[in-house]
Amino acid sequence: MTWTKYQLFLAGLMLTTGSINTLSAKWADLFSAKGCRDDPEHGFSHPFVQAVGMFLGEFSCLAVFYILLCHDRRSPEPKMNPGRSFNPLLFFAPAMCDMTATSIMYVALNMTSASSFQMLRGAVIIFTGLLSVAFLGRRLAASQWLGILITILGLVVVGLADFVTGNRDDTHKLSEVITGDLLIIMAQIIVSVQMVLEEKFVYKHDVHPLRAVGTEGFFGFFVLSLLLIPMYFIPAGDFGGNPRGVLEDALDAFCQIGHQPLIVLALLGNTVSIAFFNFAGISVTKEISATTRMVLDSLRTLVIWVVSLALGWEHFQGLQVLGFLVLLLGTGLYNGLHRPLLARIPCCARFVDEAVESSPGERERLVNDGSGPTGDES
């Protein structure tokens, strides 16, 4: 199949903005600047402020949704399905999961490399698969169970690579690297709960993905912004990473931005990229296929790793390459990327069709699967 220029643009936009999302967050973490007081120059360690910016990007998806809706309604033949009306509070629980998981992951990103951060996020399919069986009544195919087992193996390999790197890396202590990796995996448990809740609500209420992402962004942005106030007074010691030793010092973040304006560029890169990434991801699923979206998401991990090496943010590790390939295999099996290949073989085509038919909701999952039923990317 030959792609149109618009489809190529969407694929490129998804790959570019998805990579910028993680790289800009890591870039912000690498800056050092003076704060509000006479404290010496210190690192920009403000994961909760970064999370607020990320939710602002998700919130902007609501504006994109209404702009597209208005444009569609002015056309002679409206094609956009806005979905049924729903109570926005239905998405409060998924938004809180998103807020918690995103905050944890930004804390972890301060402790480990950008490539390991992106690779370890692949653990989400393990917990999403198990929770979908338990709470959605889904039956996983044998290839999906195999994909989960291979993904676990890939996580072990990436963890070993980080262990080796942490032993000889002056940037992060070994204990920080291990803690960061464990926090990322812990966050994926929360993300999987979010995905199961989103899937249940999206299918039941026929909510447009952009509207769902924007609604969650609305809740996440305002709740986390309010939580920055008590965080300013909660002692956290060295874990806070700021001179006052509190959970989050938002004033210190703004003062550091004033002394080092490039931090604004990194934060804006994160905010803007998340909005365009969600739009591009949903459009790729609609205009091309969910399979293409999965492939692009895997390529995003590769781009982040290559750019991090080129910028000297991390050192080359052969184990990390092996871990990436194993994770890629596990993700591909879980998401059915092997089916188009098997379908080309006459003797296997019948078994592929039977496997899809035997799993309730499998066809819907293949259409809607991505970085979540709503296309949300935290």
Describe the protein in words.
The structure is a single chain. It contains 15 helices and 2 strands. The protein is an all-alpha fold and 378 residues long. Strands 1-2 form a two-stranded antiparallel ribbon. β1 (32-33) and β2 form a beta hairpin. α3 packs antiparallel against α7. The model is unreliable at 356-375 (pLDDT under 50).
Quick summary:
Residues 358-378 are annotated as: Disordered. This protein is mainly α and 378 residues long. It is 71% helix and 1% strand.
**Quaternary status of these chains?**
single chain
Mean pLDDT: 83
Q: Which ranges are low-confidence, i.e. pLDDT below 50, for 5 or more consecutive residues?
A: 356-375
Taking the alpha carbons of the first and last residues, their distance comes to: 32 Å
Strand order of the largest sheet: 1-2
The helix content, as a percent range, equals over 70%
Output the radius of gyration.
21 Å
Largest sheet, in brief, is: 2 strands, antiparallel
Count of separate DSSP helical elements: 15
Q: What spatial form do the alpha-carbon principal axes imply?
A: globular
Strand fraction band? under 5%
Order of helices and strands: HEEHHHHHHHHHHHHHH
Query: What is the number of strand segments?
Result: 2
Structural class: mainly alpha
